[in-house]
Design brief:
By secondary structure, this protein is of the alpha/beta class. It has 16 helices and eleven strands.
Length: 440
């Protein structure tokens, strides 16, 4: 397994020498007496090799043994799974430590050459460097990831921005999971790539709804049709064919671009980095359902929620991704789920982190009621026009877990930075009323 480079690919790098040195420490205690006086992590080029070197030094400093089992345990305790997973291969792949002094001198020489060639760190901070990096994106216009919901895409000027952090605050039974799943399906069908972390529904429900929606059949209809088919009764032949076609669609169309996980990965940032690599040049959509189900300390959930917000805020830029984050909202004083400035549950940082904040509310949580959920844009950055307000409504399609986007009543037009008597989710800072500044 090749570890992650500490810096960009560089000609002054010798993978075999790095492996030989670390392997020598793991198979021969005399290695310490030969190069221990100058041994340090910095000359290693790979991040994982630096971590292993640091763990070796930590054990040696405390006069503790540093065999592969103990070293791997130290790295796992530190949360570095990548480094931990290459400890045993390093120990098994080195047959002798005889040349370790030669390899160490080579690494020191390569490190010296890399350091001498390092660019001026302030050159990278120049505004001209910023322009060089962003020039193409600025002049080509903002990239958009279509959601597949026509009314929402029109309001946003084409869909979610790339990169962007988009947050949907939704009431129970409003259709939020179905709404997000449909976006993911359509993105993959359009040639994109999706990583979907579903902490709400579980594998069986997720796949069942996917297939029912595609076949336009309810789960009970499918069960009856398949039982009849197995008995040789063919009254529901069309239902069986639709179900089989839906499974084929999942296997041939979605499987190439949809990764789904139902428990949080140990290292979320590493998972997204690996997903970005798998996606290649395809536009990446990351869906997390939901924010409140992510692992965090129960005694300080507000801090935990905001920490996840900061991480997702960083990852959208690191990997040129559109992130769709589902969040719960709280009841208002009347016991209703409505948009207001404290609607997003357990968070104080939505308005500072999100590029787009949406709410999806429904007048009742009764699943059998014929009521529509209303989608509102509460905050939007990087939109040429102001999309705030109600943009669409969604009617549930029973029994196959579908949604139909329909029009909502028109709101009075308002200028982009104007004010309105209608309340906003995030009031403008410094004012007791008015709309949140979309450019803030």
């Amino acid at each position: 397994m090749l570890a992650t480079p500490a810096r960009r690919s560089h000609s002054c790098f010798d993978l075999e020498a790095e492996q030989a040195i670390l392997g020598a420490f793991l198979i021969d205690d005399d290695t310490w007496s030969r190069i221990g006086d100058t041994f340090c992590p910095e000359p290693f080029y790979l991040v994982a090799h630096q971590a292993i070197a640091a763990a070796l030094i930590a054990r040696r400093t405390k006069a503790e043994p540093a065999d592969p089992v103990l070293l791997r345990g130290d790295l796992l305790d530190a949360g570095d799974r990548t480094a931990a997973d290459i400890v045993f291969p390093l120990a098994k792949g080195v047959g002798t430590s005889a040349n370790v002094s030669y390899y160490w001198r080579r690494l020191l020489d390569l490190h010296e050459r890399r350091t001498a060639e390092a660019p001026d760190e302030f050159a990278a901070l120049s505004i001209s460097a910023a322009l060089a990096k962003e020039e193409a994106a600025l002049e080509d216009g903002s990239k958009r990831l279509p959601t597949g919901w026509p009314r929402l895409d029109r309001a946003l000027g084409g869909g979610f921005g790339i990169p962007s952090l988009n947050i949907l605050g939704a009431a129970p039974k409003s259709g939020k999971s179905t709404w997000a799943q449909i976006i993911a399906e359509r993105h993959v069908e359009g040639g994109g790539f999706v990583y979907y972390l579903d902490l709400e529904n579980g594998r069986r429900r997720f796949v069942r709804r996917l297939l029912c929606r595609r076949s336009r059949l309810g789960a009970a209809q499918v069960a009856v049709a398949l039982r009849a088919h197995r008995r040789g009764v063919f009254e529901s032949r069309d239902h069986v064919a639709s179900w089989d076609a839906a499974k084929c669609w999942v296997q041939k169309t979605l499987a190439t671009g949809l990764l789904v996980e139902f428990t949080p990965p140990r290292d979320f940032a590493a998972r997204i980095a690996a997903v970005r690599q798998r996606a290649g040049e395809r536009p990446l959509l990351v869906v997390v359902d939901s924010l409140q189900k992510l692992p965090m300390r129960l005694e300080d959930r507000r801090a935990g929620v905001d920490a996840w917000m900061r991480l997702l805020e960083r990852l959208r830029h690191d990997h040129e991704a559109a992130v769709l984050l589902i969040s719960e909202i709280k009841r208002d004083p009347k016991g209703q789920y409505t948009a207001h400035e404290a609607a997003f549950k357990e968070s104080g940082g939505i308005e500072y982190s999100a590029d787009l904040a949406l709410t999806l509310t429904r007048p009742t949580a009764d699943e059998s009621a014929d009521a529509c959920s209303t989608l509102r844009v509460e905050l939007a950055r990087d939109c040429d026009d102001d999309p705030r307000g109600e943009v669409a409504a969604y009617r549930a399609q029973y029994p196959f877990h579908g949604l139909e986007e329909i029009e909502v009543a028109k709101l009075p037009a308002r200028p982009r930075n104007g004010t309105s008597a209608a309340p906003a989710l995030f009031p403008q800072r410094g004012h007791s009323a008015g709309w949140f500044d979309a450019d803030a």
